[in-house]
Amino acid sequence: MSAGSANELAPLTLDSACITELQQALERVETGRGVLVRLADLMGGAVGQAAMLGMRTLGLAPTLQAKLQATAEAAIRRAFDLAVVGMDRPHDVSVEASSGGTWRDPALKAAVTVSGAVGGFTGLPGLVADVGFTTMAIMREIARIARENGEDLSTEASRAACLEVFALRAFPFGAKKGTPEESELGYFSARAMLRGRPVVMLVSEVATHYGLGLSRKFALQMMPVAGALCGASLNAAFLSHYRAVAQAHFTIRRLEREYGPEVRRTAADLKAHAASQAREA
Prior knowledge:
Elements: H1 3-9, H2 16-31, H3 35-42, H4 45-59, H5 62-82, H6 93-148, H7 156-167, H8 180-184, H9 186-194, H10 199-220, H11 226-259, H12 262-280
């Protein structure tokens, strides 16, 4: 749907450029394929069969699952405490973008790729170190995107919003019979469920879903040689996925600060129009 047709649906406050931003952000955060699905695509064929075997093995090892869960929670908690250091002060986004944007993205991707490769070679001990470094890198990137979208990272609400990026994909977005409003506004419903929770509870909630991703990541890295390749590819996919979700999440929050409840009403109009077009097709 074009920005022009979207503007005809919701002509009140948002201009066509903002409606386009909102529509693209909702598509990324609601209809974008989850990181684990993309990982399965990356690791298809024989590696995929080995991963399935690894998952069955993990299912028989509750102590290992508990260790991975504890690793996830510790990594999230440490990253949350450290990632915003130095980012809670005013800054010039234009200067940061012009000075660091050209090298930061490839450097960060290379760093997490190397970390994943090393972790893949060394098994569980390497995974623990890899998870700590990669989670910190991802959280730092989320905080950077938040700040570029006008978030004040000295506030509890903005810092909690960084944690929400890890939890959003745990909610089932998409159309479901009998619950049209909940499915059409899945992003907003998911965020409402997370809002207001104490940070310690939010960290635990996030770690539960993040730990599932780590379990599958570990399963894919169980093969001695292919594990390094898997770890490198998976880390790059994790970074790309959470970066895209963060960009969408904080774009919507920025629009909400500017336009208030009209953002959600516009989202409802966009979803209703898209559903109507789908029925007519």
